[in-house]
Design brief:
Number of helices: 12
CATH topology of the largest domain: Rossmann fold
Structural class: alpha/beta
Helix content: 25-40%
Number of domains: 2
Distance between the termini: 72 Å
Order of helices and strands: HHHHHEHEHEEEHEHEHEEHHE
Strand order of the largest sheet: 2-1-3-7-9-10
Length: 379
């Protein structure tokens, strides 16, 4: 009897040791070390696909690591064969098309380096200068008719009296191409316009907007705020004194007037918050005349969305590559199928925050009808 008791005790101890070993192994996977290379189930790639975020930007999103932990917990309960099959499926589903070429020989150590949990004080993510096609999200249950969609795209880069903005025209050209590809019936591209040419372009576009369901205007170039009003700066502006702002620039309110006839969505996108060289040369005639870098907040009626590349009072980066961080994020997101417009601009904001190390925060004003969802494209 005593021998039987000792035998049962031995079995109990052995079982406890095995269970503790399993728990310890799982805890090792969940204690954060997977960020340094221990990702046997391919969870990082899977979560990036679920969140619809670009490669290597996951660690900048607060929900990324909790989702990876959730994935590891679920994967740990499956068999190795099932897990490997799921990992292969995930990698296939997020492979971008030929427009963006990713090296097939990228080492796992390099990939893991990008996926490490960021140091809040030191982490900076290099801005991507090449728009990519992100994986499609799940198709919505019901999708309304797009209707007729028209756009005016303006890029002012070759200024006559201040240095050139390198990316303003290339951003406009790339966005115009993207809008055509996703089905806008009319996309009017204008680059390097004088004040008279900008006014004429808006007047002509207003006729198209009156017969459209969506009317969108994108402006890339210099902008300025004076006494609470926002202005776009044409390439021929000199702005020698502060009062010249009203005579040599184009008010953003003119853009609102040009698109007011659209039936469903009126969209203005202003990538015009760059650090403004005109301010340094401008003579002040009235001490109370406030002229600042960045743009002022704006009130928008229902059915109008106004998107700034940088929050009011702040400046945007032009970027060191072919496109600005804001234009890159915007082009990526409007080409993502099944992405509702309100969430789209939230993700554009998150992308820009991530790629600029939180130095630039886009901001959206206004609202569209809550009774209908709006998509740039669906599949």
């Amino acid at each position: 009897m005593q021998k039987l008791g000792w035998g049962l005790l031995a079995v109990f101890v052995a079982t406890a040791v095995v269970a503790a070993s399993v728990d310890f192994a799982m805890a090792g996977k969940m204690n954060g070390n997977f960020g340094g290379g221990n990702d046997p189930y391919g969870c990082r790639a899977k979560i990036r696909a679920e969140m619809g975020i670009a490669p290597h930007t996951g660690p900048a999103y607060p929900s990324f690591w909790p989702n990876v932990r959730r994935c590891l917990e679920a994967a740990g309960q499956r068999g190795p064969a099932e897990t490997q099959s799921a990992e292969r499926s995930t990698k296939t589903s997020i492979q971008p098309p030929n427009q963006v070429k990713l090296s097939a020989t990228t080492s796992s150590s390099k990939k893991d380096h990008h996926d490490k949990a960021p140091d809040v004080k030191k982490a900076t993510v290099e801005p991507s200068s090449t728009p990519v096609r992100l994986p499609a999200l799940a198709r919505p249950a019901t999708v309304g008719d797009f209707g007729r969609r028209v756009a005016l795209v303006i890029g002012n880069g070759k200024y006559e009296h201040v240095p050139t903005l390198p990316n303003a025209t290339s951003d406009a050209e790339a966005l115009a191409k993207a809008l055509e590809e996703i089905g806008f019936q009319s996309v009017t591209l204008k680059t390097n316009l004088t004040r008279d040419q900008m006014n004429s372009a808006l007047a002509e576009f207003s006729k198209l907007a009156d017969a459209a369901d969506w009317a969108a205007v994108y402006y890339s170039g210099h902008g300025i705020e004076s006494r609470g009003e926002n202005y776009m700066i044409p390439i021929d502006a000199e702005l020698k004194v502060d009062r010249d702002v009203e005579f040599e620039t184009v008010e953003v309110t003119k853009v609102l007037s040009a698109i007011e006839g659209a039936r469903k969505i009126k969209l203005i996108i202003l990538d015009a918050c760059r650090d403004n060289p005109f301010l340094g040369q401008m003579k002040r005639t009235v001490a109370t005349r406030s002229i600042t870098r960045g743009l002022a907040p704006i009130e928008a009626d229902a059915g109008v969305l106004i998107v700034y590349a940088a929050k009011h009072g702040e400046t945007a980066l032009d970027g060191d590559g072919n496109h600005s961080p804001f234009a890159t994020a915007l082009i990526n997101r409007i080409q993502t199928p099944n992405l509702e417009i309100r969430r789209l601009f939230d993700l554009v904001r998150d992308d820009v925050l991530a790629t600029t190390g939180r130095r630039q925060q886009p901001f959206t004003y206004g609202s569209v009808s809550g009774s209908e969802d709006f998509f740039f494209q669906t599949k």
